[in-house]
């Protein structure tokens, strides 16, 4: 089968491309911005990439056009596909029909921590010898790739053994073969406004947390809760829901109806932790069943670990074995990733962009560095933050930072006004270069500069390290 993927350089669609290629399909694709690192990864897999969405791509004559949610009506290639009456499908639906069918899907949903928890869970299953497939919205350091078929790859060329089912054109896989997927609540495609995760039909679903986000497509939190309940409705009676007990929104989701075994984590009952986030006992119904000692920081990662352990148990991994795997977990790129040190100043990169994620990330670094200064640089780049929906929460999210530096370029709201409660601790600049200048002017040896964005942040990390190194020369 020949797939041509529209929007191929996004993390999710790039992952689908890698899975399709591994399954033996011919894959080509296009995007408005064909750029590294995804473009390099895809070309290394033998996938031809085209810059832009020209209608002349119809000449490729693929068997199916796989459409990412970055594509909207008015896109010239999509309009040509529609006019010609050609077959097209969304990325999540293609994935469900050609990769996930017949597998034990473990889906990780939530406003925060999806990528990290998905990576943890995949690593725990790998450590247990289950050879999971996975699709993660990042690059787990333990694997070095964002997606793979896993146990399905070995079965691709084999005759169907007893107890297996065909996967809709993909490889034939054992029903028990696990596949771990980051389950995003963002909409599927311009022609399918359901959340992506509704397509995945998990047998094990982690509901990590739930806050308002994606203000560009959801009116309010209740609208997102409705989509989460759609996910709950797809989990079978023999399945398992792993739910954060601390989240009132998730409790409201379950009150709408629940038909599966449900286990809680993070509360007094169910799965809980005793100890610091970097070294803690894992308790199940109050009884110690494992101990985690690892390099990760922050209470949020402690909760992520509990969720991963509870989900892995559903496919037969003992908690003690899961904890041993987590001791070797190396996290995901862009999660408090140290990018370098110059003139005694350490520069970190993190994907945080929602106020709660920013606060959690700063807290994690604060627990690590104690009283040493944290200089937090961030850009409100996500669609939700660009709308200014959560601008009033920014001072709260940055409470534990000593100084804050906001890149305000492209915003339609006044970042300086939003950060006014922070007084002289907050600086706003409309270009990345000015942000760098302001940070370098006040940074001193022993400081920690934390850069937070869901984009490249204009290469701020390299610029900072270069400028700081120049100071020392």
UniProtKB/TrEMBL annotation:
Pfam families: Mur_ligase, Mur_ligase_C, Mur_ligase_M. The keyword Transit peptide does not apply. Pathway: Cell wall biogenesis; peptidoglycan recycling. It comes from the Bacteria. Keywords: ATP-binding, Cell cycle, Cell division, Cell shape, Cell wall biogenesis/degradation, Ligase, Magnesium, Nucleotide-binding, Peptidoglycan synthesis. Its EC number is 6.3.2.45. The keyword Ligase applies. InterPro entries: Mpl, Mur-like_cat_sf, Mur_ligase_C, Mur_ligase_C_dom_sf, Mur_ligase_cen, Mur_ligase_N, MurCDEF_pg_biosynth. Residues 2-100 form the Mur ligase N-terminal catalytic domain. One of its GO terms (molecular function) is UDP-N-acetylmuramate-L-alanyl-gamma-D-glutamyl-meso-2,6-diaminoheptanedioate ligase activity. Residues 108-312 form the Mur ligase central domain. Residues 334-455 form the Mur ligase C-terminal domain. ATP binds at residues 110-116. It catalyses: UDP-N-acetyl-alpha-D-muramate + L-alanyl-gamma-D-glutamyl-meso-2,6-diaminopimelate + ATP = UDP-N-acetyl-alpha-D-muramoyl-L-alanyl-gamma-D-glutamyl-meso-2,6-diaminopimelate + ADP + phosphate + H(+). Its cofactor is Mg(2+). Belongs to the MurCDEF family. Mpl subfamily. Reutilizes the intact tripeptide L-alanyl-gamma-D-glutamyl-meso-diaminopimelate by linking it to UDP-N-acetylmuramate. HAMAP family: Mpl (MF_02020). This is UDP-N-acetylmuramate--L-alanyl-gamma-D-glutamyl-meso-2,6-diaminoheptandioate ligase.
């Amino acid at each position: 089968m020949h797939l041509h993927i529209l929007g191929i350089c996004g993390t999710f669609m790039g992952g689908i491309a890698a899975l399709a290629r591994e399954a033996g399909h011919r894959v080509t694709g296009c995007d408005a911005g064909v750029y590294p690192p995804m473009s390099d990864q895809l070309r290394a897999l033998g996938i031809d990439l085209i810059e832009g969405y020209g209608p002349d791509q119809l000449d490729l004559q693929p068997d199916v056009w796989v459409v990412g949610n970055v594509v909207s009506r008015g896109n010239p290639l999509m309009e040509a596909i529609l006019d010609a009456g050609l077959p097209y499908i969304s990325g999540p639906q293609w994935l469900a029909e050609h990769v996930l069918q017949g597998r034990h899907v473990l889906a990780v949903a939530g406003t925060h921590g999806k990528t990290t928890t998905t990576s943890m869970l995949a690593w725990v299953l790998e450590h247990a010898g289950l050879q999971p497939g996975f699709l993660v919205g990042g690059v787990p350091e333990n694997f070095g790739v964002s997606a793979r078929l896993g146990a399905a790859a070995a079965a691709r060329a084999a005759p169907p053994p007893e107890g297996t089912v065909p996967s809709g054109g993909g490889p034939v896989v054992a029903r028990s073969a696990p596949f771990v997927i980051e389950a995003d609540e963002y909409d599927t495609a311009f022609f399918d406004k359901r959340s992506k995760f509704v397509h995945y039909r998990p047998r094990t679903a982690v509901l990590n947390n739930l806050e308002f986000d994606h203000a560009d497509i959801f009116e309010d939190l209740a609208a997102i809760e409705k989509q989460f309940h759609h996910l709950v409705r797809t989990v079978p009676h023999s399945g398992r829901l792993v739910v954060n007990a601390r989240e009132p929104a998730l409790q409201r989701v379950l009150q709408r109806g629940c038909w599966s075994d449900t286990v809680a984590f993070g509360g007094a009952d169910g799965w809980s932790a005793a100890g610091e986030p970097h070294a803690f006992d894992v308790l199940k119904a109050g009884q110690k069943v494992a101990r985690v000692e690892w390099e990760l920081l922050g209470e949020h990662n402690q909760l992520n670990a509990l969720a991963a352990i509870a989900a892995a148990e559903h496919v037969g991994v003992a908690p003690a074995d899961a904890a041993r795997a987590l001791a070797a977990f190396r996290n995901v790129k862009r999660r408090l990733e140290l990018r370098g040190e110059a003139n005694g100043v350490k520069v970190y990169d993190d994907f945080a962009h929602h106020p709660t994620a920013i606060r959690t990330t700063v807290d994690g670094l604060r627990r690590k560095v104690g009283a040493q200064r944290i200089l937090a640089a961030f850009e409100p780049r996500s669609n939700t933050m660009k709308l200014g929906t959560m601008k009033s929460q920014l001072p709260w999210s940055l409470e534990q930072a000593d100084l804050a530096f906001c890149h305000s370029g492209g915003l339609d709201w006044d970042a300086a006004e939003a950060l006014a409660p922070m007084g002289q601790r907050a600086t706003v600049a409309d270009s990345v270069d000015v942000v760098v200048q302001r940070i370098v002017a006040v940074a001193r040896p022993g400081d920690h500069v934390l850069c937070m964005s869901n984009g490249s942040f204009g290469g701020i990390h390299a610029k900072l390290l270069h400028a700081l190194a120049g100071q020392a020369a």
